[in-house]
Design brief:
Elements lengths: L6 H6 L20 E4 L6 H4 L14 H23 L2 E6 L11 E5 L2 H11 L3 E2 L2 E2 L2 E4 L4 H4 L2 H4 L19 H21 L39
Antiparallel strand pairs: 1-3, 1-6, 2-3, 4-5
Length: 228
């Protein structure tokens, strides 16, 4: 009997059966998309009682959005500055172990994604090692739960399709304007011949695994106070 590919892994880059799945998980050798497994830790999901049920969180919606925006900006800015232009970045708000906190970064070029995987697997973020791999996902519309987008998903956070967590309008506007500035800067640089100026590394960048430590952001951040 011919072996069958796992449609969930192909569409979503993750499968609830993991290595026990009876179908084949064809891991790509090249892709524009990088998966950072379980990277985002939602404070509202971390408070659980002994039976596994969620405790009532005293974190407000505004604080929750700020925490998430800070995380998203840190990862997006550092990865784009270090590895290459990002077309799309998405974070899963699901609760299932195979999807919770997953970050998908789709780079413009496959070689940028490959460089990111090779480097990030030697890094730490938030005191935990980063687990990065190339993902088969390229069309997030196919991977997303349409019922969730319409507010009608009955499977809650344990749905096997992506429930993507949105960033604030303010952050989206900032990242868009940042990208526009980068494009204009590149256009101007084509008209001038010169030596590239190297930027000193941010002290907030994640350390290599050999040295432990946490993750971090990059240059060009929004002017705002970051709550600890």
């Amino acid at each position: 009997m011919a072996e069958v590919n796992c449609s969930f892994y192909f569409k979503i880059g993750a499968c609830r059966h993991g290595d026990r799945c009876s179908r084949i998980h064809n891991k790509p050798t090249f892709s524009q998309t990088v998966l950072l497994q379980n990277l985002y830790v939602n404070p509202q999901n971390s408070a659980k009682s002994a039976d596994g049920s969620h405790l009532v969180s005293n974190v407000t919606d505004e604080e929750m959005q700020e925490h998430y925006d800070n995380f998203f900006e840190d990862v997006f800015v550092e990865c784009e500055d270090k590895y290459g232009e990002i077309e799309e970045m998405n974070v899963c708000d699901n609760l299932g172990d195979h999807l919770v906190g997953n970050v998908y970064i789709k780079f413009r070029r496959e070689e940028h994604a490959e460089a990111a995987v090779n480097d990030l697997n030697n890094r730490w973020f938030g005191g935990r090692p980063v687990y990065a791999e190339l993902s088969p996902v390229t069309d997030f519309r196919e991977a997303c739960c349409r019922q969730y987008e319409m507010g009608e998903c009955t499977r809650s956070g344990f749905c096997n399709f992506m429930h993507l967590k949105p960033i604030s309008r303010e952050l989206r506007k900032y990242l868009y304007s940042r990208r526009s500035r980068r494009h204009r800067s590149r256009s101007r640089s084509r008209d001038h011949v010169g030596t590239r100026r190297t930027r000193s590394p941010s002290p907030r960048h994640g350390h290599h695994r050999g040295g432990g430590g946490g993750g971090g952001g990059g240059g060009g951040r929004r002017d705002r106070e970051v709550k600890k």
